[in-house]
Amino acid sequence: MNRYLILISILLLGLTACKRQTLEERIQAEAALFTQKNCPKQVDKFTVMDSCVFSIPERTYYYNYTVKGDLDVDSIYTQDLYEAFRQDLLSGIKGSITLKACKDAGVSFCYRYYSDRSGKLLMMQKFTKKDYR
């Protein structure tokens, strides 16, 4: 009898250990791996990509950046700049082949830009599936 309990326990443990990752879990793991391997990453003279994070509850992929130098000034973040950035980022999402699985799943994308000097959030751009479809 004891032998059967042990066998059943091993079987149940084996079955639960073989759980497949959901798409969201896979995206989250890939974002963490990308951050670990590539961040911080100097994007241009003024911008550093700090991390990529996928929030499963929000179904949102976050790109976190730090800006310095000439871009680290509150006063330049006008509505015109905000709109220009928005169009540029949206164009990148729409044209991205690497984001295809995320876009097909209806994931949102959020770009956050923080000040190097103060740590303050300078700009945030969020895109939902209705924006990039």
Care to describe what's here?
The chain is of the alpha+beta class and 133 residues long. It has a single domain, classed as GMP Synthetase, Chain A, domain 3 (2-Layer Sandwich), CATH 3.30.300.250. The chain is built from 5 helices and 5 strands; from the N terminus they run H-H-E-E-E-H-H-E-E-H. The protein has helices at 2-17, 23-38, 79-95, 100-104, 129-132, and strands spanning 41-42, 47-55, 60-67, 108-115, 121-127. It has a 5-stranded mixed beta sheet. A hairpin with a 4-residue loop joins strand 2 and strand 3. It is globular and about 50 Å long. The N and C termini lie far apart (59 Å).
Short structural description:
The chain has helices at residues 2-17, 23-38, 79-95, 100-104, 129-132, and strands at 41-42, 47-55, 60-67, 108-115, 121-127. The chain is of the alpha+beta class and 133 residues long. It has one domain: GMP Synthetase, Chain A, domain 3, CATH 3.30.300.
Main attributes of the structure:
single chain, 133 residues, alpha+beta, GMP Synthetase, Chain A, domain 3, 5-stranded mixed beta sheet, 5 helices
Q: So what's the CATH class?
A: Alpha Beta
Give the helix level as a range of percent. 40-55%
Number of domains: 1
Order of helices and strands: HHEEEHHEEH
Strand order of the largest sheet: 1-2-3-4-5
Distance between the termini: 59 Å
Question: Mind telling me the C-alpha Rg?
Answer: 21 Å
The CATH topology is GMP Synthetase, Chain A, domain 3
CATH architecture: 2-Layer Sandwich
Largest sheet: 5 strands, mixed
- Please provide the count of β strands: 5
